[in-house]
């Protein structure tokens, strides 16, 4: 199964072509950026497709991170993935950003829970905690930092994501500290592909996962009356 995976949810634009039959990455490209995903994505896709030596007709499925993350970045990746799926008639599978961040640590050892955390700014984080066997201990949500730390400080735990260090710094006194703090800020597109390969497209649609409202909102006061 050949998967083209895309991640534009956070502060990177990343693409990979991964062959699940042999669990081998044929090509990968990643550029760290806070803005400019729309301009960077298609050239990166073209780069990895050329390097992989494959054509779009060879791709069996497209995978894309659906959030939480940047509103603008998410729209860029989702629009591209949907377009590729529409053009090729192949499935498009949405993968949670938090699940993709937690996956590498769970693959190493799934007996110890992993709390994936993304810095949501202003003293908040996006959080999900996954336990043994993939059981969800804390569902994906936006939380105040101190509340999040209390929610996951319930025993041995590992932290992953851009909010991991913030979470560790807010750890409740007297509680056992995290066993590991992996502050990798953005998902690895290879893990996005791996998660997609075991996902049911019907249950993992490419729809944005917004855990809070956008910071920028339409003006609701002082409007000029229309005639």
From TrEMBL:
Gene Ontology cellular-component terms listed: cytosol
Region (Disordered): 200-227
SUPFAM superfamilies: Actin-like ATPase domain
GO MF terms, alphabetically ordered: transferase activity
Gene3D superfamilies: 3.30.420.40
Keywords: Transferase
Entry's transmembrane regions: none
GO biological process: one example: tRNA threonylcarbamoyladenosine modification
Domain Gcp-like, first and last residues per copy: 33-130
Record-linked PANTHER family: TRNA N6-ADENOSINE THREONYLCARBAMOYLTRANSFERASE, TRNA THREONYLCARBAMOYLADENOSINE BIOSYNTHESIS PROTEIN TSAB
Protein name (database record): tRNA (Adenosine(37)-N6)-threonylcarbamoyltransferase complex dimerization subunit type 1 TsaB
UniProt source species: Ancylobacter pratisalsi
Gene: tsaB
